[in-house]
Amino acid sequence: MVIRGVGGRIINIMRRTFLIFLLILTLSLLFASLSHAQVQTRLRVFEASNVGTGIDSSLKDMGDQFKSLFSFSSYRLLKEEMHTLYPNQPVSVPVHPGRNIELTLIGQHRKVAEVRVKIKKEQTDILNTQVRLSPGRTVSIGGPKHGEGVIIIALSAQF
Amino acid sequence: MKDSCSSVSKLIEKYFDQEITSKERFFVEGHLQNCPACREALSSMEELRTLIKVPVEEAVRNEDFPWLWQKIERKIRLQEKLTWWQFLRSWLDASPLFKRKVWIPAVVTIGVLLFITAQIFFKEFPSYPDSSVVEYVESETHHVMVYDLEKAKVTVIWLFEGLEEESSTS
Fold first, then answer.
1. What beta strand segments (E) does A6-148 contain?
2. Sign of the C-alpha dihedral, residues A24, A30, A32, A34?
């Protein structure tokens, strides 16, 4: 009677431990597979010009980065959005009147996300490129005129 | 008398265990009637049996032999250097729950999840040199220039007006 009682308890503990282990394993695998196959991207659209000297607080890093390349004195944020990219699922965002930016996650390797970027005006591809985003790296696309300056799109990924 | 006792003492254990022939039984019982020492010896054997029998029977009543046997069997199998599959089977056999078929879908699900996850984790990606941030770039309407400052981690793709105007004028 005593032996059966102890044995039963041990089997119960084993059974519960096994079930909990299975649950944790399943959830962690599910979470790992889902989180691994997606990338959070930050999209900022701003106007750079030489009219005035104001730099929006969220664009101070861009001002510092562009210092050695361009001589703009003003950076004005037009739009800032976060988008989660999933493999081969394009996300389209309007960035300029009549123009959309389309982002597609092509691949991901550790801390590098390979993203295809298309800027479209109606049916025409203004730009078609593929870039690799890594932590701390911002890829900017600029040039088209906007107001008294130019429009710049800054793209970065968060891991 | 002494000779008779010494010859009976060899038979008295067989008599006690009821493993004696009828001829020997007749001889032993005849001797026991006239010999108090041999009757005493037989009586001691009976007392000894009672002393041993009672606790053993009680322990047997309390014992769960099927469970114990499974445990012993598992130990024996382990000593026989089982393969990993046999070891798993013997371990799972310890509980009746594991014998049920309900574990099959659970194991299959885990297997499928492992297979999917393994493909994601072990998928071979090309190794990217840090310097090549822009894989390719093309434009139907603009001239394009790429600025890449590796130290500052700045990459700029700049579109110059030109083709758009040319195409619109032509």
1. 39-49, 74-85, 91-96, 99-109, 112-121, 124-133, 138-146
2. negative
User: How many domains, chain A?
Assistant: 2
> In chain B, which among 130-159 make CB contacts under 8 A with chain A?
130, 132-142, 144, 147, 149, 152-159
Measure the CA–CA gap between A62 and A75, rounded to whole angstroms: 8
One domain, residues A18 and A92: no
On whether the pTM is more than 0.95, the answer is no
Cα–Cα distance between B70 and B94 in angstroms, integer? Answer: 7
Tell me the count of A-B CB pairs closer than 8 A. 132
CA angle B155, B156, B161 (to 5 degrees): 165
Locate tokens 């822009």: which residue? B134
Does the distance separating the beta carbons of A141 and B156 come in below 8 Å?
yes
User: How far away is chain B from the Cα of A137, in angstroms, using its nearest Cα?
Assistant: 5
Alpha helices in B63-140 (DSSP H): 65-79, 84-92, 96-99, 103-122
Other Cβ atoms within 10 Å of A144 Cβ, number: 22
Identity of residue B155: T
The pLDDT tens digits for A25-63 are 888 777 766 656 788 999 999 888 888 888 888 888 888
Q: Look at chain B and count its residues.
A: 170
- The two tokens of residue A116 are 């295809």
Type of residue numbered B42: L
Tens-place pLDDT, residues B111-126: 888 888 777 666 555 5
**What are the Cα distances from residue B46, in Å, to B8, B10, B13, B34?**
17, 17, 11, 19
Domain ranges of chain B: 2-62, 65-122, 135-170
Domain membership of residue A145 as a residue range: 39-158
Alpha carbons within 13 A on the beta-carbon side of B60: 6
